[in-house]
Design a protein that fits this description.
The protein is of the alpha/beta class. It folds into two domains: 8-214 and 300-321, TIM Barrel (Alpha-Beta Barrel); 217-293, no CATH class. It has 14 helices and eleven strands. The strands form two sheets. It has an eight-stranded parallel β-barrel with strand order 1-2-3-4-5-6-8-9, surrounded by five helices. The longest helix has 18 residues, at 304-321. The two termini are 29 Å apart. Bound molecules: flavin mononucleotide. Residues 22-25, 27, 46, 48, 74, 76, 105, 127, 148, 151-154, 181-184, 202-206, 208, 289-292, 294 line the site of flavin mononucleotide (FMN).
């Protein structure tokens, strides 16, 4: 039984575990968010999944009907993923539905949105991939900063600093709580990140291989079989580096980049519609999918609750076993 690790993050967000179930484009729907929040994480709904603020409102209401546990809404600051002139409307919709935790992700901290977060009484978490961006978020008033290191599935930024160095660097640079991740797939990873000074962890890739994750079983099985070497970095040529699973679609994108393809050719090749079809139909070479190096540590497909309970018990065991200093 988990003894319950309490941290500033569990206190601030009101979740059982110091775990953020990272937002995943085209995957983090209300049903999955509710499952992860009911299992003890603070899960993050991807507002980029919704074409309008009204659709987002419907999704929030659906999530609220499925869980009374805390969850957050992600506002994506990458121009390719969300219409940036509509961000305020998405924030308004989020606040109007009573969601009190907002996560932003992207290089550029959202200066213009900060007054809305404040007036709406929201806890603002800014997610980024570098000390300089973390400092900027904190200076603008972020309540929590999330940092992800180079191992991370999805956007890795440009600095290529691993979680092991990124985490304590950001913890040292800020005086607000830090959530860290990139490569966390088991309780050892949670214990390690807490030892580095984080108050919480974020996980994404590991959650793909769970019973409730709304993707095809073929892809879950492929993640079970994958090694830590089976990811690659794509879209660096358009300053949008993403760590993705190294399948045929990834190879095609890398070839196009090597040929100097334009932004829109690449966006088209990396299109989320193909990923959606892959998630639905199970042709695992069809689309590109974000995937971190922690995929190499995945060995089974448990329910989200089984996974999170197990990770926390393991984290506690690791922490207590570390009492290894000779008297
Ligand atoms: C399939 C997938 C899709 C993701 N989509 C997004 C996204 O749309 N926006 C975002 O900020 N992060 C996204 N992420 C990143 C996660 O929220 C989280 O930060 C990351 O997965 C943590 O690293 P890990 O995968 O090594 O656990 C995605 C990750 C994965 C695996």
């Amino acid at each position: 039984m988990s003894q319950m690790i309490k941290t500033e993050v569990t206190e601030m967000l009101g979740c059982k575990y110091p775990i953020i179930a990272g937002t995943m484009a085209r995957i983090s729907n209300p049903e999955f968010i509710a499952v992860a929040s009911n299992a003890g994480a603070c899960a993050v709904l991807a507002s980029a999944n919704y074409g309008s603020p009204d659709e987002l409102r419907d999704a929030i209401q659906k999530t609220q009907s499925l869980t009374n546990q805390p969850f957050a809404v992600n506002i994506n600051l990458f121009p390719a993923l969300m219409p940036q002139d509509k961000l305020e409307d998405y924030v308004d919709a989020t606040l109007a539905e009573g969601v009190k935790i907002i996560e932003t992700s992207g290089h550029k901290a959202p200066e213009d949105l900060v007054p809305k977060f404040r007036d709406g009484g929201a806890i603002w978490i800014h997610k980024c991939a570098g000390v300089r961006y973390a400092k900027k978020g904190a200076s603008l008033g972020a309540d929590i900063v999330t940092v992800v290191g180079y191992e991370n599935g999805g956007a890795t930024g440009v600095l290529d600093i691993g979680t092991m160095v990124m985490t304590p660097s950001v913890v040292d640079a800020l005086d607000i709580p830090v959530i860290a991740g990139g490569g966390i797939s088991d309780g050892r990873g949670i214990a390690a990140v807490l030892a580095l000074g984080a108050e919480g962890v974020i996980i994404g890739t590991r959650l793909m291989a769970t019973k409730e994750c709304p993707i095809h079983d073929n892809l879950k099985q492929a993640f079970v079989e994958a090694a830590e070497t089976d990811t690659c970095l794509a879209l660096r040529s358009i300053q949008n580096t993403h760590r993705i699973w190294n399948n045929k679609a990834a190879q095609q994108v890398l070839e196009l980049e090597a040929q100097g393809a334009s932004l829109w050719t690449l966006v088209d090749a990396a299109s989320g519609e193909k990923a959606e079809e892959m998630y639905r139909e199970g042709d695992i070479d069809l689309g590109i999918v974000a995937c971190g190096q922690g995929v190499g540590l995945i060995n089974d497909i448990p329910s989200v609750k089984e996974l999170l309970d197990r990770m926390m018990v393991e984290a506690e065991e690791v922490i207590s076993k570390l009492n290894i200093i000779a008297n």
